[in-house]
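To whoever is covering the structure queue this week,

Two jobs came back overnight. Logging them here so there's a record in the thread.

Job A:
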Amino acid sequence: MSPAVTVLSIRITDDAEPALRLDGLLDEPATALTHVDLVGARLRLSGPVHTDGTAFHATIPLLASKWGGHVLPPPSGDYAVHFRMADAAVPGIRITQPSTPAQLHPSLFAAHLTTTLDSATVTFAAPLTAEETGADAQARLEADYRTANPEPINAVFFESFYGQNASCNPLAIDRELARVRPDVARYWSVADASVDVPPGAIPIVDGSAEWWRVRGAARLLVVNDWLRKRFRPRRFQTVLQTWHGTPLKRIALTRPGIRPRAAVATVLERKRWDILLSQNPYSTGIFRTAYAYFAAPWEEGYPRNDVLVHDDSAVLRSKLGISDTATVVLYAPTWRDDDPTRVDQLDVAAFSRELGPDYVVLIRGHSRSLRGGSDVHADNVIDVTTYPDASELFLVSDMLVTDYSSVMFDYSVTGKPIYFFTPDLDRYRNQMRGFYFDLLAASPGPVAQSAAELTALITNPGDTAANYAERYSAWQKKFNPKDDGGAASRVVARLLARGVLD
């Protein structure tokens, strides 16, 4: 039996708004081919099929807006070409187009096509030039960076979660700097051109010549994770390490079984930080031990939580397509060291069915699961792992379900209910990471060991809020004493008073 679809040509158009163009033949004019999709782990792009007798063509735009942001190219990764028919699966595909080498679309992406007899995959990568791509090119750029003595520029270099998004404490500080010092250039390190940056900010792709230049010349660097081994501090530079959460689980030098090499790397990394931001006195004590940090951290609360005090959720619900009457459950688990790409520890599809049609479940994976995992697709479930600002999800939701994630310390700013789903508590606590305190004794909400128990607690809350009111209040006093909506302004004021910028 001959294939229903023969693809003769697959190419990416070379214009300001590139698209994937497919041309081919149908086995007969009546073949009901309707759409061609480009399917990645966390993004699906689609284009309609147009026919003329047995000939067909399809165009898939490669620039799209997600979550109401700017129109941007796809995140780096592999995207499979899928064909759709109106009422049935496509019975057979034949592809005659050979694989093609990487093609650079400046400032957007590099892409190459890989084909077999019956499949096609487009691989997108960061838009680096030939002089920037590969180990040898990066070694040359790094050598130039290390030996250069650049003139300082009155600018800030921001990076959040290794450039995977523009979020967290750096984003809140960016907003405040843009307000009080609009004259200062704000550069954001991004993994690729799919990362949306704040208005007025300038994206610079990790590894590009411009990225190396700005990283070496900016007066202020604001990051929320490690700078990595390629960083060389200049005397005129100040590094503000905001970090990204109050810890329950053990980190850095206090992790169980840490190896000498990792311990040395931790201490070397800590030496690069001029200022360390702490959310609360508890975190300050942890950071001193975990990073052998002997200076006084800035205890100012977390800038990323300012929006929890100031902003309204109505617009955000509309952006996510959630009705005003739905009860929204935010499920935000942490990552597992032995299975970092797995996000869904709960089976949110089944969980959503048990909750019923009046509930919407948002699933939010940890930043370490952002690139490797894949979205969950189910009724009344929205996978918001790629949503850039987790704080806005706190505003949208009516309650939080988590396990051991530091979101528990930020969400309590809202005063909304918090539930803990911890079926692997003993293993995670005793074998994998270890805790700094007894979660069961201190939790500001109930702890469930099974999905059925969790569902019952949420749908029949009874006196849960009253029973945990005292614990919740004690939790807020311990972990949120300065999460009052003014953290970003205090941090920026201290930076400017310190003279880190001209």
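Job B:
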Amino acid sequence: MEASELRTLYPIFSLDTLKYELEKNGLAVVYTYSLGDTYTFTHYLLFPEVDALMLNKLSPEEIDQYLFAIGMAEALNYWKLTASPTIEVKAGALNADQIAWWHDLLIQGMGEYFFTNKITFTDPDFVIITAANSKIKKTQEPQ
């Protein structure tokens, strides 16, 4: 199936949630992404060297920001499945400058992907990134 067909079938790709929990074996992070109501992708990361002592050196806001940035970078990889015209960010907040930065990273950093798949990406509205102000959820620490 060509990119133009996939873009029509899946107009919205979203980063839905980011949850993390300090487990006995490290910091577990789970991201969920979706293509509308059709497909959901779960990406699991484990940072085995991270413990409570290390986390206490950072504020909760800093931890949220670092993990959110990783989730955004991973989102671009999943977005490549369909090159959806809209990327909807529900798992965190982005201001206009941050949206512009992620948009620029996507457009400037995916040259080989666009070339290989014969995708014309020069239209300023080729991809629109929107962001909600939902919160990152930190689950309960293990007992």
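Note for Job B: The longest strand covers residues 12-23.

Please reply-all if you pick these up so we don't duplicate work.
Q.
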